[in-house]
Design brief:
The chain is α/β, with parallel strands linked by helices. It has 4 helices and 5 strands, in the order H-H-E-E-E-H-E-H-E. Helix 3 packs across helix 4. The radius of gyration is 34 Å and the shape is rod-shaped. It starts with 24 loop residues before the first helix and ends in a 5-residue tail after the last strand. About 6% of the residues have low confidence.
Length: 133
């Protein structure tokens, strides 16, 4: 039999059509290419740059006792405020001082001298604020 010019491979009459299979291989190729791209584009940090604080590892009970210096100059230690907070924090010898990045250096220097007068042996300073890159 010969094919006429009007014959086509599509079916235009009702009935059950054979299920067509979608090609999966191109999709898998795209997924792997994206995976490779993101792995190469990712920024990996140097593992040696992230060191754990020895204070957090060695003395976890002391980490709960934090002297907080607000940018306004208010000093708190637990529920204590002012000079009472400074004396109580310095009585342990080790003081963990937490302050914001906006705190003026003059306030910090005055507090450090008051802590030394109260008997603080060591002060660990922790600043809170956004890191600028």
């Amino acid at each position: 039999m010969f094919r006429s010019r009007l014959s086509t491979s599509r079916r235009f009459w009702p009935g059950t059509a054979r299920p067509s299979r979608e090609p999966v291989v191109p999709m898998i190729n795209v997924v792997f290419l994206l995976l490779i791209f993101f792995l190469l584009a990712a920024h990996f940090a140097d593992p040696g740059s992230a060191r754990r604080s020895q204070l957090a590892v060695d003395r976890p009970a002391e980490m709960q006792r934090v002297l907080i210096l607000a940018p306004s100059g208010m000093v708190t230690f637990g529920t204590l405020r002012g000079e009472e907070a400074i004396r109580s924090a310095a009585s342990g010898g080790l003081v963990r001082l937490q302050t914001r990045q906006e705190t003026q250096a003059a306030l910090l220097a005055r507090l450090l001298s008051r802590l030394a007068e109260a008997g603080a042996g060591r002060v660990d300073l922790v600043t809170i604020g956004e890191a600028k890159e």
